[in-house]
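Q: What structure does this chain adopt?
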Amino acid sequence: MTGIGAARIGCIAGLLTVVLAAGACLAAPEPAVPGKLPAIAAETPFGAYLAGRHAQEEGNYRAAALWYEEALKADPRSPELISRTFDMEAQSGRFDKALPLAQKVLDLDGSDAVADLVLLLDRVEAGDNAAALARAEALPDDGLHRYAGPLVLAWTQMAVGNLAAADAALQGLDKFDGFAPLKYFQLGLLYDFAGQPDKAEQYYLKTLDVTGQLNWRLTDAMANFYLRHGRPDQALAIYKRFVAENSGSELAESVMANKPVGVPAPLIGSAKDGLAEALFDLASIVNRPDTSDLALLYDRCALALRPHLAVAQLLLADLLTADDKPQQSLAILTAIPANSRYAWSAQLRVAANLESLGHIDEAVAQLQAMAAQHPDRASAEIQLGDLLRGQKRFVEAAGAYSEAVRRLKAAGSPPHWALYYSRGIAYERSGQWSLAEADLEHALELKPDQPLVLNYLGYSWIDRGEKLKRGLKMIEKAVSLRPEDGYIVDSLGWAHYKLGDYAGAISYLEKALELVPDDPTINDHLGDAYWKSGRTLEARYQWRQALAFKPDKEDVKPIEAKLESGLPSTVARRSGGG
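A:
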């Protein structure tokens, strides 16, 4: 079953990725139907059920919920229909529809954490803190939703005024690897809300200590704290550190231009706000490909409690974009008012969604207008460069990147290594090698041993017949750093091919093909290596595979020529880069 029940969580290690971007608006409803289904689907309960299954498999939870509702009308006691309808209503954020089914789900399965959570949200909204606490205490301490329990219990304990119990509840996060940053951040919010500034600051600083770098949500909380306690210089220092550590990001630019003036309202104004924040933070942590359904559920829960929590609204838009729903994401983003603190971030995402929809000219126009409107900001130029590079408009891309570099330097914010790497690719692809080499070497100075840069620069040297030994060592190092990256392994194989080591080339290219079996360039490279080794039948098979995987238009005729006449003088092409 896809949706909530399909998610799997492993150990979540690393830093607390609370939010790198933010925005404000309400989610637009999802389409009522998952595409053009046969009309017969709605004529029978079984047809509605099948349509619901189809929509669920497609990830269209809103449509799935509507189809299951139709089927449930005909068979209201069906355990499967009750469970599926409830799951889809919750996953699509229709908690008013999920609520009447929640108790029925618990009657079927008393350990269903989502049903308990929906009932808990209802009690929080009703102000029935004792009942909400009872629901929190009933949440399971194992299974998919085991991470939510300590957070929910902490803030429901705060709702009844039990600070010690709330603190104790958060200690339950110690059972999970990688959750120390979340625990300390929540403790900071908890004691800040409780009016104990010394302990709040202690935990905020502890969060920063264990993460080692400021993310936006921690930055916002600490700056808010310092401003409310008459320490504006420290608030400014926190903002400046965030800007320095996140050069070129849209928040790094807009934060300094939109800092709160005077004494701001507390980040957490009630225990209900704290619970919404906790669920949002958890959604941010589990926002990974294998647990995106959980992220969607927790983020919708956060918005059910606090509909105008801007960062949660933008996370919802990002989740929809990642799930290939750019139209729905656009509906969210375009509703954000122009005077919002997060409007800049939202507008950048509008351009990204336009690009994914194939509206390239509109996306370019939007980014150019943004860059002209704010000549002191670089992020629109960076995104424009990325878009143009993706369209193989390399000269224009290099120009956009150069403008971004100029703006960052003018603002006293050193450009990130990735910007020089991106511009280096654009220069190399547009035939400006001396400029490309300088950028790629500078990127390595800023970020030594960065595997992408090592791979690109090392390969470029070998491809040009320059610095062969150094180039090969760089690619070998890149492979050692990312041994499961099929594109980098392909580069190493192709480097051996260019150096005449066809046996070595075949070894690495076969490994690359195992890692990325459907890439046309890797198949093409392997075909060339087979041909040079006298394995002509296998070579032609790989070239046919390369054509089947739809290579770039300019690569089709050379591959067809090889199938017809064998290997001519080969011109190397890159895979997976640029």
